[in-house]
Write a structure and sequence with these properties.
Strands 10-11-9-14-15 form a 5-stranded mixed sheet, with helices on both faces. It has a 4-stranded antiparallel sheet with strand order 2-1-6-5. The chain has a two-stranded antiparallel ribbon with strand order 3-4. It is globular. The chain contains 9 helices and 15 strands. α7 crosses α8. The protein folds into 2 domains: 107 residues, PAS domain (Beta-Lactamase), CATH 3.30.450; 178 residues, Reverse transcriptase/Diguanylate cyclase domain (Alpha-Beta Plaits, 2-Layer Sandwich), CATH 3.30.70.270. It is α+β, with helices and mostly antiparallel strands and 302 residues long.
Length: 302
Amino acid sequence: MIQSQSHRGNDAVITVCQNNQSRRIEIREINESAAAALGYGAGEVVGRSLTEFLPKRIDSLLNEYVEFEDDGNDVGGVLSKVQSFCIVDRQGKEVGFRLKVLRSESLDGNAYFRLILQSRVADKKDEAFRALLRENFKGHEVLEPHTSLPDRNSLAKDVDLVHYYVTKDALRASLALLQLDQHATLLERGGEDAAYAALKHIALIARQNLRTDDTIGCLDSRRLGLILLDTTSEAARMVLNRLRWAVAAHPFSLADGHPMPLTVSIAFLLIDGDASRKDTLQRAEQSIARLQTDGNALVEAA
């Protein structure tokens, strides 16, 4: 499967397949957090029907509204409309979650969906914090005119603010710099307008692969900056690897209509509560500058 959007390593995630031939919603992957919520080992769950772990009211909705046609892909839409989603654990107890349904592309012709299960209590606290952070970001945001993304100075202030919360509230966050590998070619073929248009194209792909509250900024005509909230080093690497391959899989069209494949090289690091904002940016920029590859590379700054 090719995952189309991102989640964090600490989320509870169940990947399901709408198998129209067998008329089943099959669990194909489950991480440790989700298996623990069910009270099973992951190996005991994979291959079974999702409906085995749902209360009757949700099972009935799926039976009534999901159409297992040859090209049917409506499981995600039906699940997204469920009120007060919950699963039934090994003891028969209903455990409530806030549900996010993300569509995943498939290589076998079936529709795949990732079900992100978030604790309602933790989610309310998280939403309140993120709302506060969004308001603080908006207070100093200036948009770069070519891409309509926060400009370099705005991104620097965002890093500064996140650094404060990393120190004060133990927030986990990462900073990543994306460097356009074809920058010189784009300048030759269309000038800076072409380079900025390519960055805007990449930013749209990034937005599809990141959480809504992750920040995307434009540093210059070659680089984008990303702030990933609530992420470990391992989770950031997974997210950014998916983003690299998503960019490579979606060619960019020049102003004359000719397609041009794009790749990005990425340097990232955790935003350290003991480091200054200036040092965080410098370390990421130095890592990008040191990259000596043919492109499409990912490196974690030391």
